[in-house]
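Hi Q.,

Before the meeting this afternoon, I wanted you to have the NAP prediction in hand. No need to reply - just skim if you have a minute. The sequence and ligand are here:
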Amino acid sequence: MFTYQAPPQLLAGRRILVTGAGRGIGAAAAETFAAHGAQVVLLGRHGAALQRTADAIAAAGHGQAQAVLLDLEHAHEADYQALAGQLGTHLDGVLHNASLLGPRVELEHITPAEFARVMQVNVNATFALTAALLPLLRRAPNDASLVFTSSSVGRKGRAQWGAYAVSKFATEGLMQTLADELAGTRLRANSVNPGGTRTDMRAQAYPHEDPQRVPTPTDIMPVYLYLMGPDSAAVNGQALNAQ
Ligand code: NAP
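Predicted structure with the ligand bound:
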């Protein structure tokens, strides 16, 4: 496991947006960032799920999270611009976490529509959201951080991981290209491979696995805290592993 001892108020005063914040790793990240002092913005396509995360944050005494509804499969340029307009003066961090697994079959058995859907959510939407939020990130008073979510199959291709694997390679490419463009600025971009983590997506990918044998989203939070906080201000263009 990535080890990092985060100070309790590591993210105090930081405003951080998390996509896919209604469940799984995104919900845990939002709650963890809030517990370390951040004001979090929860992005997702189901209001009830975002409300559950916001309620958990409030119940823990970690403030009021802002929820913004956006379906990354169907969002258009105007939706991203409207979202950026809702977010106030600046952002200090963005965690691109939302993703679709898609069919776990050989590439030849994936339809173009299924392939396009995974690429839309995992890559095109990540690009469009990043582009819309860069002006807000540039206005952060100190360092600011973009974290992209990869996978082990986004670093080495593997049979039957289909469009998902291709989308995670593209995510790494997006991160690396952006990181090179951001070099020398106060803004940085890095990726995290969470590794096998106890979520709905993991259960969908490995239906016969005993979930108790897999780390929880809370267990893998140290690398996310490290990348969102000032201790990683000089880290740019790196592909990190949560485990
Ligand atoms: P998860 O439990 O399936 O959660 C996926 C999240 O993405 C949900 O919040 C979901 O929202 C959101 N999402 C999907 N499609 C969306 C759309 N069209 N618009 C907005 N949000 C959408 O997955 P997870 O395991 O927490 O995965 C989080 C990240 O880690 C993903 O990028 C995944 O690829 C990566 N990852 C996970 C593992 C693992 O073992 N769990 C391993 C490697 C990488 P809804 O609730 O609305 O569906």
